[in-house]
Write the structure tokens for this entry.
Amino acid sequence: MAYIIGEREFWSLPLTLEAGALIPRPDTELLVELALEKLAGLPDGDIIELGTGSGAIALALAQEPGDRPIIAIERHDAALQIAKNNVRQFGHGRVQLVQGSWLDSIAPASAALIISNPPYLASDDPHLPSLQYEPRTALVSGTTGLEDFEQIVEASCRVGKPGSLLLLEHGQDQGASVRAILEHHGFDRIHTHRDLAGHERVSLAYR
């Protein structure tokens, strides 16, 4: 229905939506809540959102008080165009869109917050048939569903400032695996938060 109507509300924003971008879910607002809760305690630096899709997370953060630059990165042309339309309407001059793969184009030690709801389904996930209208590139990470987490966490070691925060949304059964990846790469104060249904949904860690 969101694709038919051409709009989906997220963080009270009526975002333009087309089939090239993932439909924002209410559970993802937990990412925004945690980011806003933690921002004041972070070092100076940029906010970087990875895989912005429609721009929902970056634009939600831009609605709140603050002057940190927000860099929203998206790899795919169709999603980038949808994000551009929303940034023009809701970006408040704070959101800069960048086309690229994860953190490849970001300068070392420049980020205070890295935030992402990346693809996290395995290639044979049984939920995929019910998600057939959404872009597979926004859903599937690889054979295990953890491949993109590995790439993001490893790259965050280079881009995050000392004391920076990494926030990741993941599947309800992936909390332990994501925590293990974070620990392996030397992050600390690792913690997983549950969504309103009680499922492990967002893991955070400090550099």
User: Anything to note?
Assistant: The chain has a mean pLDDT of 94. DSSP finds six helices and eleven strands in the chain. The radius of gyration is 16 Å. The longest strand covers residues 160-169.
